[in-house]
Structures are given as C-alpha cells and as structure tokens.
Amino acid sequence: MPASCPALADPDRTEWSLCPSTPAAILFTVLFAFTTIVHLVQAVHYKKAYCWVIVGSALAQTITYICRITSIKNPNDLGPYAAWFVIILVAPLFTNAFVYMAMGRMIWNYIPNAMLYRVTAWNFSAYFVIFDIIALLIQVAGASSSGASRHANQQVLNAIHIYMGGVAVQQFFILVFLFYAIKFHRMVLQQIQQGTEGVSGALPLLYAIYAVLLLITIRIVFRLVEYSHGFKSTIPDHEAYQYALDSVPMLLALVVLNFFHPGRIMPGKNSDLPSRQERKVDGICNKVAKINESSTFAA
C-alpha cells in the first residue's frame, strides 16, 4: 500500500476504492468556486430572483469538492465521503431547473402569445420545475439510501437502481423539454424571417441551453453506464472518468451560463414572468385565452 495514499491506508475503514488525487479535488474546488462567485455577482447585478437557483447549483458543486478534500484527508470518517457522494449525484438537477426557468421567460419575451403547444410561459416553468423536483426526489432517495457505500449488498444495489431510475426520469424530461425548445426555435426563426425586431437575441441563449443540456446528458449517460452493472464496473475505481465525464461537463455548463446569462439577454423588470395578480390586472390570461380560442376555430 503506498504510504502517500492515506485514503487506502486502512481499506477496512474507508469507502475509497482508489487513491484519490488531492490536487485535482483542490483544482475543481477553485474552479467551481470561481464560477459560483461570478453567478452570484450576476444574480445581484441583473436583479433576477430565479438566478439564485444557478448560484445554488454552482455552490453545491463547490461544496462537493470541499467534502471530497475533507474525505481524502479523513478517509475513516464516513460523513464527508457520504456528503460528496450524494451532492455530486444531485447537484446537476439545479442546473436543469435553472434552464427550465430561463426557457419559460424566453417564451414570455419572444413568443407573441406567450405559449408553446398551448402551454403558457408561466405554466411551462412551473411544470418543468415540478418534473425536475420529481427526478431530484427519486435520485436523493436512491443516493442517500445507498449510504454512500461501495460494498455491494442487496440494499445498496436496490438504492443504486432507484438512483438510476431518477437519472432516467431526468433525461426523459430533458427530451420532452427539447420537443418544446425546437418548437420555440422554429417560431423565433419564423419571426426573424418576417422582420420582427429584437427576436434574434433569443438565439444565443437558446444555443447555450442546447449546449448545457448536451453536457448534462453526457453526464447522465456516464452515470447510467457507471452503475449499469452495480459495483462490478471498474469505472468508479478510476477517478479520471468522473472528472472527465461529470466534473468537466458540469463546470462547462455553469461557465456557458456565465457567458450567456439570461439576466443579461433578458434584462429589466418587464422581462420577468408576471405574477398571477399582474396577469389578471393586465388581462393577459384573457388575451391568451382568446388567441387560443381563435386558433382552435381556425383548426
């Protein structure tokens, strides 16, 4: 046993199955902390309440690697290991939720009747955030029930299967979301062809959302493959896979949203989704209902 690997010095009292790299964990702690600070500044600067969701996602990723460093230094303490194991599995769901919330505001800002396939902008955000919460609850239930243990037994394997089911649910909702995003994309392009001003600004953010969802999908596929054979897979024994196919994609997703921040592309109070009271006062609900009714008769 290498003397330089305290995590494996007492294999009977640690969950580590490899010699984790402290410098790598420190590097990603710094990188995630940097994007967290940038997202925090952007949330304050653009005064968008929903942007605190992406701040929370970036902060969760930072805490993940702080816990990893702590676990490497204290390999016999299950607490830090369990914390990093659970948080790294569920943190991407908050990035997912932020994308859904941003898309609802894009529908409000760039679609004339604020609807996609008869779903209003405000309901769109609500529905997909609820879907994301469902996936989150399933994944948390699976990850926490496993006890962060890599020692295979039936209870741990059942917990991992629950987690994988939650990941599959997450990916399913992403595919449903893309169905609506493509419709949005086509409607924006149609408006651009008709010479509508101000609509083309939606495209950079839409492309950024596509990129973020691709990065999340890469991470989802990795996690499904990692646990597809329970703990018989050798993937968990090589941390390079985790860094390359989980840490890097999620870091890039956060950085992409730094550069193409919804608050910058959709600034000002008028870009915010109206509250229920505001919709009633402004007659927005009646307007959408009439447009919907007209389209029904036309069909």
UniProtKB/TrEMBL annotation:
Q: Where are the transmembrane segments?
A: 24-42, 49-71, 83-103, 115-140, 160-182, 203-222, 242-260
* Primary location: membrane
Cite the InterPro entries for this sequence: RTA1
Query: Does the record carry Disulfide bond as a key word?
Result: no
Arranged from A to Z, the UniProt key words for this protein are:
Membrane, Transmembrane, Transmembrane helix
Membrane topology classification: Multi-pass membrane protein
Q: Where in the cell is it found?
A: Membrane
Listed under GO cellular component are:
membrane
The name this protein goes by in its record? RTA1-domain-containing protein
